[in-house]
Every structure is written in structure tokens, then in C-alpha cells.
């Protein structure tokens, strides 16, 4: 009996051991999967079969667009899904467990890199865990910050649109080993999933107009077998409001202020002070804003054109003001006004003057006046005596009178000259005033026309561009969120 009892006990114990080793729990799964796993081996059934990997980008944030270094910095989630036949299990064996999260440092990973990397990591450097389900599908969605090269077009700054691309693909494995596919698992076709913007946080500086993706198979000169890559592009449009308010508008005001110089009367003696202060403040302003302008020589940005234009206006106004002041202070002792100038500035130009209160100076009025002037004073006196001037007594008296008459004549001539010279000076002043009058309107027109010409075409283009993208693209791109 003892004998049988002992055998029974042994049998019971072994059966218990067997059942306990059969009833696995969740904690065993990782160990079982990893026990014989070699992450250096590609997860394909045969040596010549390529591994298809679903590849999709989720654009999360646009961190920075650097015009000077020609690079953009983006925060992405990079979804990759592939099937690894070694990671298959039956959920029944593991308490119905259908998926596990495994550390990707222990798994085979598709080697994808950013071809047009500008700075930092070429490949994904965050090895977050991957979700593996019992059919062997590995789903890995690591976050990544990509700094990619992007050729920045500065010519339209600050109303520019950029088209930045990111070329992503396996670096060392050709398409016979690794293939990137879209979510339909179609190998060797040229379909590619657009970057997903559902997680996108709007950037304050850029608006995304369009996104897209192309898939290429490229045969490089160096290496065997075509290589697959997915090239994503992002069409970005700058939101110009900040630059508009902080740079463009003040610059415009400077150019309008320039016109005020011509409205200031020359006699006030403040014209030069105003011009020079304008020039100085424009230069100080430029020193402050110079950092906001992309410093590349690959084209002159619109904003720079505009600033140069304003600078030219201010400098021109200073030069012209000097000329106007010079004309204003001319007089008969130093200058004579030619007939042609007289005709242009006193007869012809005043007809176009826009001010109704401005007096018109007639240069020929005084000639008529001169013609109608009284005869010389001495004649009057001789006439006034009413006698023959050769008469003796009268001649004796006459020498005194003549002296007096000469004196009076001299004084009269002096005042006449004075008047004449005053008139000539007034003529020069009138010419200067007319010049100011017309330059005022010319400069105002130049301010507005220049602004329109420099920015008008681009602004019209932008309107068309947005419309075009609105029609072609997912409407959600622009309006949602
Ligand atoms: C892989 O090789 C086997 C035998 O060498 C061949 O039968 C099969 O067609 C090849 N498959 C591919 C996709 O080239
Ligand atoms: C396993 O994961 C893949 C990829 O996410 C998915 O397509 C598939 O439906 C999943 N299978 C099961 C049984 O959940
Ligand atoms: C942006 O670049 C891509 C790839 O080079 C091109 O296919 C696309 O048409 C471009 N988009 C625009 C708006 O220029």
C-alpha cells in the first residue's frame, strides 16, 4: 500500500509540474518571443523577399523655418508598420493576450533616414516601444524632430511661399530588401500617403497651403538595385501681419513724411532739419529691423526693395530741398532769371497748380507798368517852371534846383532799384514755391505708386495662389483648426 501510495504521489507531482508549465501567463510572452530572436535578421520568409513597410508621417508642429540656413525644423510622428513572422503567437496560450509592447532596441527595425537632413540626426533617434500584435504586425510610431534642407525663396519676402520637401527612405537596403508602401500594402506602385495633419498645431508664422507625397524608385550610380524613397512636400505661406505692422507700415510712414518737407515753407528755415531728422530716424529704424530680413544674396526680397526705395526717396528729397532753398534765396545781384525759366515757371506751370489760393505772378505785368510810368522828374520841373530854360535869371536859380532835382532823382532811382531787386527776389521765391508745390504732389504720388508697384503684383498673386490651393487641396487644410 505504501508502495502504491508513493508511486501515486510521484505521478501526481509530475502531472502537476506538467500542467503548471503548460499554463503560461502574460509575463512569459515577452521571454518566449525574444528567446531565439535575432534582430539582425530581416523579417522575411526568404532571403530574396523584400519586407514591405507602411510608412506615414504625421506632421505635429512646424518649429522653425530658417531663411539664412535654408532649413526647416519639424516635429513629426513617424508611423511604420511591418510584419515580423517571428513575433507570432496564439492568444489562447497567453490568457488571451493579443498584443504586447516591446522595446525597439531588441527588434529588427527598418532603417529609414532623412536624405536631405540639414543638421542633427539623419535617422529616428527616439526608440520608443513598438506595439506588436499576435499576427506579427509591429506598429512603431516614434516622435522625431527633422531638420531638413529646404531651398528658401527670399525674393518675395515677406509675402513668400515656400515649397519644402523631405526625402525619406532606407539608406543601405535596396527595394529588393526593403520597400516602403502606403496603407494599402501595395508593393512596387507609386502610391504614397500624404502627411497627416490631424495632429497639426498651427504655427503663428506659417500657414500650410498644401501637402503631398511622391514615391520614387531611384537607381543611384553608386549602388546596385533601385532604392525606394518617399518625398513629402509642404507648401508654406508666410503670415505677413507681424512684418506688415512692424516694418512695412513704419517704412511707408517714413516715405509719406518725406513729402511733408515740400509743404514746409522755405522761409521757416526748418526744411533741412526735417529732412535730416527723417534720414537719421530711417537709418536707426533700419539698424533695428535688419535682423528680421533674411541675409542671403539669392535675390533681393521685396521688403529690401521697398526699404531701398524709401531711402532713395528721403535722400532725393534732401537733395531737392537744397536746390529749392538755393533757388529761394537767389537775387538779382547773383543770378538773372532767363526768359525761358520765367515762361515755364510763371506762365506755363501755374496753370497746373492744384491750389486755388496760390497767387499767380505775371512777369510781364511790370513791363506794361514801366511803359506807363511818368516821365523823368527833371522834365516835370522844367515843364513846371513854364519858362524858357535858357533864360539867365532862371539859369542861376536853376543850378540849385538842378542839384535838388538830381538828389530827388537819385533817391527815386534808388527806391526804384530797390523795388526792382525786391521784385526779382520775389520771382525767385515764387519759382521755389512752385517747385515745392509740384514736388509735394510728385512725391506723394511716388510714395503710393512705389508701394503699389513693389507689392501690388505679389499681393494679387497670393490671392490667386490661395484660391488655387483651396480648389485643389483638401479644404480642411486651410479652414479646419
Ligand atoms: C527567390 O528565390 C527563389 C529560389 O531561389 C525563387 O524561386 C523565387 O522566385 C525568388 N523570389 C523572388 C521574389 O525573387
Ligand atoms: C495587427 O496590427 C496590424 C497593424 O496595426 C493591423 O492591421 C491588424 O489588423 C492587427 N491584427 C489584429 C488581429 O488585431
Ligand atoms: C512642391 O514641390 C513638389 C516636389 O518637388 C512638386 O511636386 C510640387 O508641385 C511643388 N508645389 C508647388 C506649389 O510648387
UniProtKB/TrEMBL annotation:
Assign the protein's first listed, main location to one coarse class.
membrane
User: Where in this chain does the record put each Neurotransmitter-gated ion-channel ligand-binding domain?
Assistant: 28-240
Signal peptide residues are 1-23
UniProt protein name: NAChR-A1 nicotinic acetylcholine receptor subunit
Where, by residue number, does the polypeptide cross the bilayer? Answer: 241-264, 276-294, 306-329, 430-455
Family, according to the entry, reads as follows: Belongs to the ligand-gated ion channel (TC 1.A.9) family. Acetylcholine receptor (TC 1.A.9.1) subfamily.
What GO cellular component term, any one, is given? postsynaptic membrane
Q: Report the Pfam families cross-referenced here.
A: Neur_chan_LBD (PF02931), Neur_chan_memb (PF02932)
Q: Which UniProt keywords apply?
A: Cell membrane, Disulfide bond, Glycoprotein, Ion channel, Ion transport, Ligand-gated ion channel, Membrane, Receptor, Signal, Synapse, Transmembrane, Transmembrane helix, Transport
Amino acid at each position: 500500500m505504501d508502495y502504491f501510495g508513493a508511486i501515486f504521489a510521484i505521478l501526481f507531482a509530475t502531472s502537476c509540474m506538467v500542467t503548471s508549465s503548460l499554463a503560461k501567463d502574460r509575463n512569459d510572452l515577452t521571454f518566449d518571443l525574444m528567446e531565439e530572436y535575432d534582430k539582425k535578421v530581416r523579417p522575411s520568409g526568404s532571403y530574396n523577399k523584400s519586407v514591405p513597410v507602411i510608412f506615414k508621417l504625421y506632421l505635429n508642429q512646424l518649429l522653425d523655418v530658417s531663411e539664412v540656413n535654408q532649413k526647416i525644423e519639424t516635429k513629426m510622428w513617424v508611423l511604420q508598420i511591418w510584419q515580423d513572422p517571428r513575433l507570432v503567437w496564439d492568444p489562447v496560450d497567453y490568457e488571451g493576450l493579443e498584443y504586447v509592447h516591446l522595446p525597439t532596441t531588441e527588434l529588427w527595425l527598418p532603417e529609414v533616414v532623412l536624405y536631405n537632413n540639414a543638421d542633427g540626426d539623419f535617422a529616428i533617434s527616439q526608440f520608443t516601444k513598438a506595439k506588436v500584435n499576435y499576427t506579427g504586425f509591429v506598429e512603431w510610431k516614434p516622435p522625431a524632430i527633422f531638420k531638413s534642407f529646404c531651398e528658401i525663396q527670399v525674393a518675395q519676402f515677406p509675402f513668400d511661399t515656400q515649397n519644402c520637401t523631405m526625402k525619406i527612405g532606407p539608406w543601405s537596403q535596396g527595394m529588393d530588401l526593403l520597400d516602403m508602401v502606403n496603407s494599402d500594402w501595395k508593393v512596387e506602385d507609386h502610391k504614397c500617403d500624404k502627411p497627416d495633419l490631424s495632429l497639426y498645431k498651427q504655427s503663428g508664422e506659417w500657414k500650410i497651403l498644401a501637402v503631398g507625397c511622391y514615391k520614387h524608385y531611384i537607381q543611384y550610380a553608386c549602388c546596385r538595385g533601385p532604392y525606394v524613397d518617399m518625398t513629402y512636400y509642404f507648401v508654406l505661406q508666410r503670415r505677413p501681419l507681424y512684418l506688415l505692422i512692424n516694418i512695412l507700415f513704419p517704412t511707408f510712414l517714413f516715405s509719406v513724411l518725406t513729402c511733408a518737407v515740400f509743404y514746409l515753407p522755405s522761409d521757416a528755415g526748418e526744411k533741412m532739419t526735417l529732412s535730416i531728422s527723417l534720414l537719421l530716424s530711417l537709418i536707426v529704424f533700419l539698424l533695428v529691423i535688419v535682423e528680421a530680413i533674411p541675409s542671403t544674396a539669392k535675390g533681393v526680397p521685396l521688403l529690401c526693395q521697398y526699404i531701398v526705395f524709401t531711402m532713395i526717396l528721403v535722400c532725393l528729397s534732401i537733395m531737392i530741398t537744397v536746390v529749392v532753398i538755393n533757388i529761394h534765396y537767389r537775387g538779382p545781384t547773383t543770378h538773372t532769371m532767363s526768359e525761358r525759366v520765367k515762361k515755364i515757371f510763371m506762365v506755363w506751370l501755374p496753370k497746373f497748380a492744384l491750389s486755388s489760393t496760390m497767387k499767380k505772378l505775371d512777369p510781364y505785368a511790370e513791363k506794361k507798368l514801366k511803359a506807363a510810368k511818368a516821365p523823368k522828374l527833371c522834365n516835370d520841373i522844367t515843364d513846371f517852371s513854364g519858362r524858357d530854360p535858357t533864360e539867365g535869371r532862371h539859369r542861376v536859380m536853376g543850378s540849385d534846383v538842378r542839384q535838388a532835382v538830381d538828389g530827388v532823382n537819385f533817391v527815386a532811382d534808388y527806391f526804384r532799384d530797390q523795388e526792382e531787386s525786391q521784385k526779382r527776389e520775389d520771382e525767385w521765391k515764387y519759382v521755389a514755391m512752385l517747385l515745392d508745390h509740384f514736388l509735394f504732389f510728385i512725391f506723394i504720388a511716388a510714395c503710393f505708386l512705389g508701394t503699389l508697384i513693389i507689392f501690388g503684383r505679389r499681393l494679387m498673386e497670393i490671392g490667386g495662389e490661395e484660391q488655387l490651393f483651396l480648389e485643389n487641396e483638401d479644404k480642411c487644410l486651410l479652414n479646419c483648426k
